[in-house]
Amino acid sequence: MPVESGSSAAARQAKQKRKSHSLSIRRTNSTEQERSGLQRDMLEGQSSDNLESFMRMEDSKLPLSLRSNLLDLFSQIEREFENLYIENLELRREIETLNDRLAAEGQTFEGADLAKGALKTKASHSTSQLSQKLKTTYKASTSKIVSSFKATTSRAVCQLVREYVGHRDGIWDLSVTRTQPVVLGTASADHTAMLWSIETGKCLLKYLGHQGSVNSIKFHPTEQMALTASGDQTAHIWRYMVQLPTPQPVADMSQTPCEDDVDFSDKDEADGEVDGPNDCPSVRIATTTLRSHQGVVIAADWLVGGKQVVTASWDRAANLYDVETSELVHSLTGHDQELTHCCTHPTQRLVVTSSRDTTFRLWDFRDPSIHSVNVFQGHTDTVTSAVFTVGDNVVSGSDDRTVKVWDLKNMRSPIATIRTDSAVNRISVSVNQRIIALPHDNRQVRLFDMSGVRLARLPRSNRQGHRRMVCCSAWCEDNISCNLFTCGFDRQAIGWNINIPALLQEK
Prior knowledge:
Blueprint: H1 6-43, H2 48-58, H3 64-104, H4 127-139, H5 142-149, E1 157-165, E2 171-176, E3 183-188, E4 193-197, E5 203-207, E6 214-219, E7 225-230, E8 235-239, E9 256-257, E10 282-283, E11 288-290, E12 297-302, E13 308-313, E14 317-322, E15 328-333, E16 339-344, E17 350-355, E18 360-364, E19 372-376, E20 383-388, E21 393-398, E22 402-407, E23 416-419, E24 428-429, E25 435-439, E26 445-449, E27 454-457, E28 470-475, E29 484-488, E30 492-499, H6 502-506
Helix pairs in contact: 2-3, 3-4
């Protein structure tokens, strides 16, 4: 075997070292070229922030492909924020233009100089949504918007006076008699209606004539008669005679400001069975039974004078009856869905009916030879109630979380709109103070004036207030301890004393 000389071996080793060094230099140059090219590509159109990020990545141990992806993502984020910034500037210019236009027309937008305010840009809000919000804001009447932000200098004081407990199911409706003796009436899903002593909270009489849920109760304007509507597809007129017990001293309860908002625990005594008053006398037979409906009778009311009554039903019709003969006088049809409420004017032969078809209708019976009807489409969801005031106003409440005040002389658009955070149930308006009481699905009861300014919220804590949905409210104008009553699906009615300062009443 030939033996390699020492000089030949040394020469081959030197050649291999030069070749290895040459390959190392080429690999280093190739890597540097790739980095330089990547730097040029990334620096084109990038901000100094991206450059700093890239330079920091030079010292990173991340793979080159991952670093490239990260830089690409950073550049996309920057472009997205740049687009949002441009849209923000355009919106600012539009707002300034609208403000200038309002200023030229002599209007001001108190507390809402949006051009000077810092607009928060959110990627989830598109330009079209923001534009629509701007249009809606400026479309509303400036004076109404400003009035809704006015803070009252003093607050109404509300005090819970008495609770009326005895029904075995939720209470749908309540009413106060218009004649002496003044008593409270409640209509319940337990198939009964009850009359209560306002001062003592004692049940005076129980009506047991219905075979279904009692959905409404109203008292005759001059006689001791009650009108109830029921889920058994009938309305009953029945007479009552009660004797008020001796008033008992009321427990000393400190006045509570109406902004108390402590939530109830869902585990409360209302969930248990409540024993009704067993010693309460009862009436089982109606004086008059009205049977023309083909569905649940959800509400009923007396026309002025008390000689006729109107009923509202889920059969999409309202019926007008003669009390003396029980005959059907008119069938008021036209609603597209179930009716939810009906109300009569206190001094004129006018009826307003509410429906799930998002409308309410005004029926005029002042001319005996003909009756007219007007349809009003001011809500976007079920109209739960619409009531008359002593003046020429109608107040409507809806599941769309709004309450609207209308002028009977011009009902093309509401004169005031109240926006709330929960569906509104059967509302009532105080005759003397012209205050609207709003019962809500969320257990709250709020008070507003006729111009839409919020006055108070009834207290609700672990010791007082409703524990479930509040279904109805009713005012009492007599000089008694309670001037507002509410009822709900917690099986109780509550009597309140509402003290509105003179300053608030003048507004």
